Amino acid sequence: MTDRSVSRGSNAFLVTAPAPLGARRRASAVAIALFVVFCALIPFARIPLPRIEAFNSIFESVFALNNLVAASFLLVAFRRSRLRAVLGLASGYLFTSLLAVPLMLTSPGVFSTGGPPNPDPQINAWLDTFRNAGFPLFVICYALLRRYEVPSGRSHTGARASVIWAAAGVVAGICLLSLVASAGHQLLPPLMLGDGYTSAMVAVNVPVCVLCLAAAAVLVSRPPYSILDLWLMVVVLAWMFDAALSTVLNTGHFDAGFYAGRLYGLLAAGFVPVILIVEASRLYGRLDQALAVAGERNTELARSREELAQAQRLEAIGQLTGGIAHDFNNLLTVVLSNLDLILRARGDPEKIERLAQAAMKAAQRGELLVRQLLTYARRQIIRPDTVNLNQLIVNIENLMHRVIGEQIEVVTTLSPVLAPAQIDPAQFETAMLNLVINSRDAMAGGGRITIETRNVTLDRQYAADNPELTAGPYVMIAVSDSGSGMTPAVLARAFDPFFTTKEVGKGSGLGLSQVYGFAKTAGGHVKILPAEIIRSSCRAGDRCRDGVVAAGQRPRNDTRGGG
Length: 563
Prior knowledge:
9 strands; five-stranded mixed beta sheet; Rhopdopsin 7-helix transmembrane proteins; rod-shaped; 18 helices; two-stranded antiparallel sheet; 2 domains; disordered N terminus
C-alpha cells in the first residue's frame, strides 16, 4: 500500500472526504440508470394496479427508518466536523423521517381497528406534499452553507445544544405543518378526489420537481464535490422522479406511477445511509492498512535503533580498548626500556636506582589507570565510611592549590549544617581533584573556582526526569569555574572514557569518567550545567560560571538506596 492511499484513507471527516474518480463514475452510472428507468416508466404511469392497503404503512415505516438512520449518521458527522451545513442536512432527514408519523395516522387502512375514524385523504395528501417540498429545501440550505464552512474537528460544549435545538425545530415545524394540513385544510385546495388526483395536485407538485432540480443545480455549482455531495445529487434526482411519477404523471393512488414513485422514494431514502456505511467500512479498512504499515515501520525503526545502539556500543568498546592499549603500551614501553637499561648498567648503582624509580612511576601510573577504569565501570572495591564532606574538602584544599597553581583562586562555600554521607573518602578526593584540574585546564589565563556544599531535597518530578534517582534528601557538591565552558557537542561526550579536548599527552580522558563512576558507585548523581543555565539561576552578586553539580550519597540515617 502506498503512502498516498493511506493519506486518502485517513481523511478526518467522511462527509467532507473528496469524491475519487471511481465514486463519481458510480454515482453517474446510478443517476443515468434512474433516469433511463424513469423514462421507460412514463408511458405506463397511468395504468391502474390492484389496491394494496398495507402498502402505505410498509412504505412509510421503511422510509422513516432509512431517513432516521441517515439523520443519525449525519449527526455523528456534525459532532466531528462542526459543520452547520451537515446539521441542516441531518435536520432535513429527521424532518422526512418524523413526518411519517402524522402521514401514517392519516392514511386510510393503516389501522384495522381503532385509530382516527375516517381520516381525511386531503390531510394526508397535503402532508405528503409538504414532505416532498421540504427535503429539497434542506438540501439547498446544505449546499449554500457548505460553500463557506471548513471542518474544525474541535470539541466544544455547544454541539449537543445545537443538535437539541435542531431536533426541537424539526418537531415544531412538523407540528405546525400538521396543524395547517388538518385544521386549515378547508382553506387549502383539495388534492384528492377519491383515489384520484385533482388538477391542484399537479399544480402544487410541479414546483416540487422544480425545487429538486434547483437543489441538484446548487450542488453541481459547488465543486469540488465530497462523497456526500455526489450522492445527494443522486438522491434529489430520485426524489424528483418519485414526485413526478407518483403525483404529476399518474392519475392517483395505486396505479403504476404511484407504486413506481414510492419505490424511487425508498431508493432516495436509502442511498445516503448505504453509501455512508460503505465509505465508513472503506475508511476503516484503510485505517487497518495504515496501522499495519505503522506497525511495520515501528518494527523497522526499533530494529534500526537496536542496530545503531549496537554500532555505538562497538564503537565505544573500540575506542575504550584503543585508548587502554595506547596508554598501556606507553607505560609498558617505559617499564621495559628502564628494565633493559638496568640489565645493561650492572656496575652503576645510582643509574640502576634512577631507572628503577622511573619504571616504578610508570607502573604506578598504570595502576592509577586501572583504578580509574574500575571506578568508571563501577567495579572498584569501595571502602565506604561515614564522613563529613566539608572536612574532606578542607583536608585536600592545600593539595588543590598546589595542583592548580597560584593564578587561580579557589573559593569554598561550605554549609555549616551539612549532613554526613557514606562514601569512599579516597575516591571522593580523587573526584574532587579531577574536577578542579578540569576547571584549571579550562582557564588558561587564570580565574576562579568555587566549591559549594549544601543539603538538597530532590522532588518527585526531578526523580521522574532522572530514573536512576529516587526522591528525597541528598548532599550536593557543586564545583564551578569562570572558564569558557563547553560546546553542546563536547558536553554530550564529557563523561565518555578517553574522550578529551586536550592536546595529545596532556590528558587521559578519564578524569570526568572517574567522577561519573564515583557518583554512581556512591549512589548519587552528577550533571554538568552550561553557563547559560547557571546564569538563569545564580544569586545576585555571584559570578555566573560553568560547573559540575553532583548530588551525592544520602545522609547516613536514611536507609533507602542512593539515587
